[in-house]
């Protein structure tokens, strides 16, 4: 079946153009000058941006953490993503320490298979680097379409890798063409600060942020960059970068021509240590995430927006890892270190970054790059995803710059009993969402279905030299 999207402004790598987009079945068949397309069924996009569907390269559906699990399943989380204009997620399969890597991947396939509303792919978290997991990296790249591996410099005893393990994984990635993703915080030092704070009776949520100072993110970021250099410039992607000094290290590496990339997340662009994490009583637990929200008295948010403009920050992902306040976040009453780490935002990323366009911080083209095109290229999904071009999947969002979105727990679709962005007003709105040619959201109504999302085997990153 054919569908012609007419009258819109198509945003792509070459700029914004008035064009009509012909969808045939699951893919984009052709792009026409306005009014020049064939006489088939039409979808009116007059006054709207026509953009490739959002790609959220960092989600944690159903992630077990701190004795509980992230509250969105692949069903609820991907449906919420679709509402917000995201048509692909890349979630993190987990190898727990001592577990066979392939078993961890199989467990994530079992959670996702038959439950996703949109297409999905996996990165692999390595909870232990040894001879077996290094061998498994080759197998995942060659056979499973998993071409990026996440390591942790934080969470000793849980996910932590020491520098020797990190170096070995980086050397392997350099050899097989895959990407190392890094949670860059010095977890050994952080754990000392956490114990000292608790011993002083500092138990409120804000101490989660105070015990994870910027210096320990900057130090770990710098160390990861140095280790990647030793591993013959292994491609390195810093996840959830939150702070100015970490960004300076990334920028310096990039200026030197290194294969170093980074993402930030909406929470670091909008929320702060004082206003959210420091909310009265236990309220701040809603915003406990790692890396933590940073101080509003410093220049982090200004610097992060600037980094997005300059491409020192390549991507905005959500690190979607929702926990309900009741019973989940509440596990940490009286001890901030027991609060499950994570913020839910998979539904709001496209809107929250678009607000940066409205506020004059990003161009409309840069908005599309950071939420869709670059994630596709970075993680081996381009040009199937991330672009409106003939042959690409017809994952398309009609975005209304004259619409408005008010974010609230009352109206969101994530399985959370609160919103991290309660009351935020966005001067734009997701109007229509197509996933592989099928209209799954129109005018706030959902038409998709659980199980229609497909697993995507990824290729290697387009960014590698
Ligand atoms: Zn994460």
UniProtKB/TrEMBL annotation:
Q: Which residues form the Amidohydrolase-related domain?
A: 49-439
Tree of life domain: Bacteria
Keyword list (alphabetical) reads: Hydrolase, Metal-binding
State its cofactor. Zn(2+)
Q: Which InterPro entries match?
A: Amidohydro-rel, Hydantoinase/dihydroPyrase, Metal-dep_hydrolase_composite, Metal_Hydrolase, Metallo-dep_Hydrolases_sf
Q: Which family does it belong to?
A: Belongs to the metallo-dependent hydrolases superfamily. Hydantoinase/dihydropyrimidinase family.
Name of the molecule in the record = Dihydropyrimidinase
- Gene it is expressed from: hydA
